[in-house]
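REVIEWER CHECKLIST
Item 1: Sequence provided? yes
Item 2: Single chain? yes
Item 3: Sequence as submitted:
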Amino acid sequence: MWALTLGGQGCHRLGYGKPLGLGSAQIEITAIETLDPAVRYTSLTNSGYAETDRWERWIEAFQRAAEARWGMPFSQLAPVVDLLSLLNYQEPELKVHYPYSPEQQSGQKQFEWFVGNKRDKGPKLELGLAAEDEGLPLIRKDGKVNW
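Item 4: Structure as written out by the authors:
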């Protein structure tokens, strides 16, 4: 629930899809129903569902449990930092685009960056956390890197 609402702090950026014409979405929880199985299966007239307003307390309990488990403030946990980096309002410092190779201007297909990255002699790069992203190098389809 915290991830859906971002603690009421903003919009979801859909995977930095701006280069593809995508935008943002704001999610607001308006109601939550809980199910009491004991009531549901012992009554012919009560479904066992009840609306609750306790969900904000559940989020707070989750945050406290995460802080206790990992020994640091919730806002400093790597998954939280990464999620907020991906979904923030600020434009990234680096241009957002699919990785491409230097030969792309000569008609190379975009997927060939991925082909070169996976080659035996390719760099086999993995994406890190969004908060630590410094961009990707140009990789030719034969696996050679142009930094």
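Item 5: Key structural point noted by reviewer: Strands lie at 12-13, 24-25, 32-35, 49-52, 138-139, 145-146.
Item 6: Recommendation: ____
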